[in-house]
Amino acid sequence: MRAGPLRHRCSVQSQQSVPDGYGGYSDGWTELRKVWAEITMPTGRTAVVAQQITRVVTAEIRVRPAADLVVGMRIVRGADRYLVEAALPDNENSMLRLLCSLVDAQEA
Q1: Dist CA 26 CA 33 (whole Å)
Q2: DSSP 8-class letter at 95
Q3: Which 3 state secondary structure label does DSSP give 98?
């Protein structure tokens, strides 16, 4: 049996305020659910941001259509964290393309 294109098990996360244990709240990422996804080969380039050279890595992640997958969420697979920049359904509404950028661990 061959694995299909949706062979990567990923976690969908949303940024929410979580209790910090001291009566306050801090922003954190909470897992909403798991999805099967196809992650295409990421592309990379360098860009000048605030007079510093930074790396920009982008990827396309394909999942089954879901109304709750929106811009600003995060897709996590292993140590890689992808921030969803755009969610584009195809013409038949059979697949959802998520255009993402790789997020550094410090930003996560």
Answers
A1: 21
A2: -
A3: strand
The Cα 77–Cα 11 span in angstroms is 7
Q: What's the CA gap between 9 and 78, in Å, rounded?
A: 9
Assess contact for 9 and 63: CB atoms under 8 A.
Answer: no
| Unique residue bearing structure tokens 């790396």 | 55
Q: What is the pLDDT of residues 39-49, one digit of tens each?
A: 987 777 776 66
Going by their DSSP bridges, the two strands 74-77 and 8-19 should be labelled as: antiparallel
Whether the Cβ atoms of residue 9 and residue 38 lie closer than 8 Å to each other: no
| First-to-last C-alpha distance (Å) of the chain | 37
Q: Which residue has the higher pLDDT, 104 or 6?
A: 6
CATH of 8-102, one of 2.40.10.270, 3.20.110.10, 2.40.170.20, 2.140.10.10: 2.40.10.270
- pTM score, whole prediction: 0.78
- 38-56 exposure pattern, b = at least 16 Cβ within 10 A, e = fewer: bbeeeeeeeeeeeeeeeee
